[in-house]
Amino acid sequence: MTEMTSADLVRKAIDVTGMVQGVGFRPFVYRLAQECSLTGFVANSPSGVVVEVQGLGERVDQFLDRLPKEIPPLARITSLILRGLDPQKESSFRILSSLLDAPPRVLISPDVAVCDDCLREMANPRDRRFRYPFINCTNCGPRFTILRDIPYDRARTSMARFKMCPACQAEYDDPGNRRFHAQPNACWDCGPQLQLWSPEGHRWDVSEPLREAARLIEKGLVVAVKGLGGFHLACNARDEAAVDRLRERKKRVEKPFAIMLGSIEVLDRFCIADEAARRQLLSFERPIVLLLRKAGAALPTSIAPRNQYLGIFLPYTPLHHLLMASGKFDALVMTSANLSEEPIVIENQEAVDRLQGISDALLVHDREIVRRCDDSVVRLACHQAQKLRRSRGYVPVPVALDHAAPPILAVGGELKNTVCVVREAEAFLSQHIGDLENFESYRFFEEAVEHLQRILEVRPSIVAYDLHPDYFSTRWALGRSGVQLVGVQHHHAHIAACMAENHLDGSVIGMALDGTGYGTDGAIWGGEVLVADYLDFQRAAHFEYVPLPGGAAAIHEPWRVAVSYLVRHYGDDLGNLELPFLKQIDARRLRVVQKMIERGVHSPHTSSCGRLFDAVAAIAGVRSIVNYEAQAAIELEMLAHDSSDEDAYPLDLLPEGSGWQIGTRSLFDRILSDLRKQESVPNLSRRFHRGLARVLVELSEKIRDQTHMHRVCLSGGCFQNTLLFEMLQEGLRASSFEVYFHSEVPAGDGGISLGQALVAAHRVGGRAAAP
Ligand SMILES: [Zn+2]
Ligand SMILES: [Zn+2]
Ligand SMILES: [Zn+2]
């Protein structure tokens, strides 16, 4: 180095906040400083990372230029604050031990798919981690699922019980090493190990549990595999008998199974995927991506009956990679190990107890899963990735808010529950918790609430909940004392969630279409067009009310709601209609349901759009009884893909008060007339979808005429229907609306905790409604 005087030297301090701890940030800064010939130091601080660099001005500039551009893959910078300092006498760049005098406010990383560097080492016979199923580094591996408490270091994870061997420890201590402070660092000598167990939990004496598990799968057996956020049940996806056996044992009728492929190279054998879809599959979050099944893909139909989409994902742990490479198969069914809607199994003994009679063997290990976390699910629509389930890989990354708020806990809905904690200007959603009517899920809910508050170090005194008095989350919230409670209407929460992630303020037209949500009039809402801001909403329009004979029973039996619509429009004498689906219903049950409707017994009124889909599906003969949520609507949508018809069924816009009611008389007139003409069901389905999209655009135009609003937010579970979403979005855009949708959180009920939190923030914070 040439001689320089202190006059040439520049010293800068940089405060970095964001996801900068436990992600290899300090070694990265260290290397970058070395490359730029700078002295100084880097250290973790309570709010993130502090860097001081010193050197020639141009070198410092170079460093500052490269820093944000070259950060490690898992790091995220929220803010970078720069200060000038006086140069000091200094000869090297150092990594200082953490400044842990105040509670840290750093972001915790989600779990990350194994990186290419680790995969290369794992495949190298001369590497000491050759074929080691738990290889990881600062750029990859488990995080959230092994975390007990903060700050994130090994002692507070389930790696605490594994003492590093000298070789691992040396890597861990070396700032220049890829594994510097990699908390889950491990190897064959010191880290977790695999075992193969019998269904009764006896360890089988096999030298290579992984190869043996692969052999069992080859033979057509079902193996429970312990993963990152829980167990999967695995079988060969090409083996029809194995897939059927798994369905039967798991009591999972027809609901699609996800498939893990050996590698991206075999994707073309099964699916049609564009670049955006491939990017999602290969992203470090590794979600399940819904992709169109290729015609002639050699897979048993029982993987996803009557569904054109396959849920595909790629290996994300080293164990998955090894398993896929160890057997003669290119695709495995990998479905969450649980019974029907119970939470995913995470403990070894729990797996033995709960998977009796389901799995033929268990591939387990001794690294405990501390946080249950299901696979995330993503689909692509209008060239955009949308999360249907936001869990492993995304949690606990926060959703950025526009304004800071006091700490808030929002407890979500009943189905597909998530909870949300707001800390300052960030909203942290929990992993997917599931359906709370299930006792195990309810316990999981309580655990998730507790854990999220602990790792964020906030105890919110504001709790937001859904208005439905029977939701378990609502009852839990109402049972709190010493907190301020804020009840939020279900569909208002949907729209507020959509506004929040799109950073909208003021008022919008909110279209919330879903299955069930408690309305302010006590009816079951679900086809709602709101004029809303964060503070409040007005119901501008809704689908007409029909009785829902049997309440929840009608959700499982779409024929009931079909009968309800028919009685409403055509009276009691259904025999005259000559509809084939009616002939298949037991005459006595049909009479009972008609009586329920007539007398209003156990028949709450509903404006649900999901139920309208059910009714049309039943009348068209697609499905009278469902085996999983929304099955009738999904199958109706799938059929529309086989049609290119341009027609649209009419729906009626009927004035009601200062708004509108969407009537369905003309719709059913046309459906019945088309059925009499033996019109194809795919055409019928397409006309129904287009009709819905058309009437919603027309309605938006009327609301715009009244209010001059031109921003439309779409939310609710019905928008999992890609066809409806795309037709509506296209129609609204063609009519010059700005259309906003979800990409960060699900449009379904997994997203409402975010909306509840935002409504509570505005109500309690006294933020006035924008004009
Ligand atoms: Zn790695
Ligand atoms: Zn080791
Ligand atoms: Zn909903």
Element layout with pairings:
Layout: E1 9-19, H1 25-35, E2 39-45, E3 48-56, H2 57-69, E4 76-85, E5 93-95, H3 116-122, H4 166-173, E6 194-197, H5 209-218, E7 223-226, E8 231-236, H6 240-250, E9 258-261, E10 271-272, H7 275-282, E11 288-293, E12 309-313, H8 318-326, E13 331-336, H9 348-354, E14 361-365, E15 377-381, E16 384-389, E17 399-410, E18 420-429, H10 439-456, E19 462-466, H11 472-478, E20 484-488, H12 490-501, E21 508-518, E22 524-532, E23 537-543, E24 546-547, H13 552-556, H14 558-570, H15 580-583, H16 587-599, E25 605-606, H17 609-619, H18 631-640, E26 652-656, E27 659-663, H19 665-676, H20 681-707, E28 711-715, H21 722-734, E29 738-740, H22 752-765
Parallel strand pairs: 2-5, 7-14, 9-12, 11-15, 17-19, 19-20, 21-28, 23-27, 28-29
Antiparallel strand pairs: 1-3, 1-4, 2-3, 6-14, 7-8, 8-13, 9-13, 10-11, 11-12, 15-16, 17-18, 21-22, 22-23, 24-25, 26-27
Helix pairs in contact: 5-8, 12-22, 14-16, 14-17, 17-18, 18-20, 19-20, 20-21
The chain binds zinc ion (3 copies).
Mean pLDDT: 94
Structural class, by secondary structure, is: alpha/beta
DSSP summary, beta strand count:
29
How much of the polypeptide forms β-strand, as a percent range?
15-25%
What does this 3D model show about the protein?
The protein has 771 residues and is of the alpha/beta class. 32% of the residues lie in helices and 23% in strands. The protein contains 22 helices and 29 strands. Strands 6, 7, 8, 9, 10, 11, 12, 13, 14, 15 and 16 form an 11-stranded mixed sheet that branches. A 7-stranded mixed sheet has the order 26-27-23-22-21-28-29, sandwiched between helices. β15 and β16 form a beta hairpin. α14 packs across α16 (587-599) and α20 (681-707) crosses α21 (722-734). The radius of gyration is 28 Å and the shape is globular. The N and C termini lie far apart (63 Å). Mean pLDDT is 94; it is low at 100-104 and 767-771. Bound molecules: zinc ion (3 copies). One zinc ion (ZN) binds at residues 490, 494, 514, 517, 716-717, 749. One zinc ion is lined by residues 164-165, 167-168, 186-187, 189-191.
